[in-house]
């Protein structure tokens, strides 16, 4: 199953099961009268055939980036509360996760474009003192998923974006 279709299906399922409700806030965006309470760019009812009908967004002749597998032009914002674990406990909050490490790698975009995760993942794991076996799932905050699907050093070893990929799920 193509990654874009899989991602949209997983995101739709996660919303239906209520797994994402606590991760978003309701927005009241004038001039609209109805509140925005869910991601509104998930292709819940799309079929594999529907994705094949989508035209490339940029390179009409050879392109592969479409409205289904990339960040929408209406990509929104996010809010994060970052604090120590002790402060969260003082406030009666339960941490959703921990920032243990990160990595930024600069590569030659003319030869290695979109391969950043393949270089950064092992470095971030090493810095955190972790191994891939110690993670249960992973995701990349990338605008274009194609690199993640085929170039990831962890492809096929752990669930990739188990609730849908970032481009359609607000880079969650």
Automatic annotation (TrEMBL):
One of its GO terms (cellular component) is cytosol. GO terms for molecular function: acetyl-CoA C-acyltransferase activity. Coiled coil: none annotated. Its EC number is 2.3.1.16. The keyword Lipid metabolism does not apply. It comes from the Bacteria. Residues 149-172 are annotated as: Disordered. Residues 4-86 form the Thiolase N-terminal domain. The keyword NAD does not apply. InterPro entries: Thiolase-like (IPR016039), Thiolase_N (IPR020616). One of its GO terms (biological process) is small molecule metabolic process. Belongs to the thiolase-like superfamily. Thiolase family. PANTHER family: ACETYL-COA ACETYLTRANSFERASE, CYTOSOLIC (PTHR18919:SF107), ACETYL-COA C-ACYLTRANSFERASE (PTHR18919). This is 3-ketoacyl-CoA thiolase. It comes from Klebsiella pneumoniae.
């Amino acid at each position: 199953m193509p990654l874009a279709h899989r991602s949209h299906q997983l995101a739709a399922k996660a919303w239906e099961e209520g797994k994402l409700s606590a991760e978003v806030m309701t927005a009241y965006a004038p001039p609209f009268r109805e509140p925005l309470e869910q991601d509104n760019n998930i292709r819940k009812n799309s079929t594999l055939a529907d994705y094949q009908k989508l035209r490339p967004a940029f390179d009409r002749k050879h392109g592969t980036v479409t409205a289904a597998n990339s960040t929408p032009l209406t990509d929104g914002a996010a809010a994060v509360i970052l604090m120590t674990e002790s402060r969260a406990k003082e406030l009666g909050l339960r941490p959703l996760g921990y920032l243990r490490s990160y990595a930024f790698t600069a590569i030659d975009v003319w030869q290695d474009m979109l391969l950043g995760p393949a270089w950064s993942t092992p470095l971030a794991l090493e810095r955190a003192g972790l191994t891939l076996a110690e993670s249960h799932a992973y995701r990349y905050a990338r605008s274009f998923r194609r690199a993640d699907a085929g170039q990831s050093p962890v492809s096929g070893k752990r669930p990739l974006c188990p609730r849908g990929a970032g481009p359609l799920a607000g880079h969650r």
